Structures are given as structure tokens and as C-alpha cells.
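Journal club prep — side note

Before the paper discussion, L.F. wants everyone to see what a predicted structure for a comparable chain looks like in C-alpha cell form. Sequence:
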Amino acid sequence: MRILLTADPSAAGDLVAREIARAVDRDPATVLGVATGGSPEPVYRSLARAGVRLPHATAFALDEYVGLPPGHPESYRAVLQRLVQLPLGLAADRLHVPDGAAADPDAEAAAYDARIDEAGGVGLQLLGIGRNGHIAFNEPGSALDTPTRVVRLTEDTRRANARFFTGIDDVPERAITQGLGTIARARRLMLIATTEDKADAVRALVRGPVTSDLPASILRIHPDATVVLTPEAATGLSEEEFEAA
């Protein structure tokens, strides 16, 4: 696992965006894994500024809320349409997001895993990290080999996401999420963390064991994983733990 230190969120976004641009240059039809939340947003802004276009690429979202009506502005499909599909020229039918309005969410979760495999698997997966070390909606205690599945959101996660809604009562209680086993099948993982409230989770990821208590720790055993940090997110780490960015 490589750990890279950058000056600020914009620089972190630029670094990850360059890697995505290189992947697309090598293979315009590459399969990308896209994430929502504050941490990945500088990546998408950097790609748009650089004029990167994705007309032949395919993108798979990490997760989606269960129960939001189609077209809800805070559904992850809508968020990714705003941040990725429209600014980067990704074809609408090449943005894949779990159907949180499906009549049978469990069947949809299994079908979503199959769609990723049918596309040849994810080449580069972008990730954020939660304050408790979760990735996607895989909370502590998630088995390291879990497939895409329906999960119940913790109160802490719903509280953290309430800022995107009118209040916590409007945040769905369940979601469909790629499991840790699904995420680990991506050929390359890039995790970005830019804020001080993630520093404890980042230190545990860098220094701790691989454990279901810290879902992000799957990066430690992945053959091609990179963690991109700002000084705030890297609080408490030493210079020796970084590679040159």
C-alpha cells in the first residue's frame, strides 16, 4: 500500500485525477469505480478542469440509498449525474448505480455484483473513508469477503449524511452497497482523505491490522492500493510512512 502526501484537497484531487486520466488514455473503454461524498469531489472537479472526457468508459457506483423515489436530488445516481456523467461526458447508459427503488433490493444487490463481473470488473476504484474506517456503506464488523448487499445504516452514518437532506428523519435507513469482497476485486484502489476528522481512521488504516473492525484495512492486503492524503488527514503519521507524490 502506497501512502502519498499532498498539499491540500485540490492537489490531492489533481493527483488522483491524473491517474484516472492515464487509465482512460490507455483504455478509453476502461471501467471506473466512482464514489460520492466530500472527499472525491476534488477529483471530479480536476478531471473537468483538465477537459477529460469519458464517452467510452463505464462507471459503477459504490452504493445507493434504498427507498428514495426515482429522481430524488440526493440519490447517488443524481449526485453522480451532476458530478461525473454530465461534466465528463459519460454516456448515461454507462453509469451504473444500484436501483434503490427496486421491489426486491436483495435481488438487485446480487444482480449488481453480476453486472460488475459482466463488464470485466472495475479497473480503478475511487474510495473515501469514514471517521470509523468504513468504506462505501461497509461499517465496522463487515466481513472482508462480503458481496454487494443491503445494509442498515448506522445512526452515526445517517447523522453524518443528514447535511445533504432537510434532517436526519429524511435520511434513508437502508442502502445497497458494494461489499468489501466486491471492492477488493477491483484491480486498483485509490483512497482519498482530506480532512482532520478522518485522521484517526487513516492512522488505523496505515498502522493497524487487517480486520473487519476497520473495513478500509482491506487496502493493506490489496496488490495495488494507494492512499492519498492532505496534512490534515495525515495528522500523527511520520515522514517515513510516505512515498514521494
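L.F.'s comment for the group: The mean pLDDT is 96. Keep this in mind when we get to the figures.
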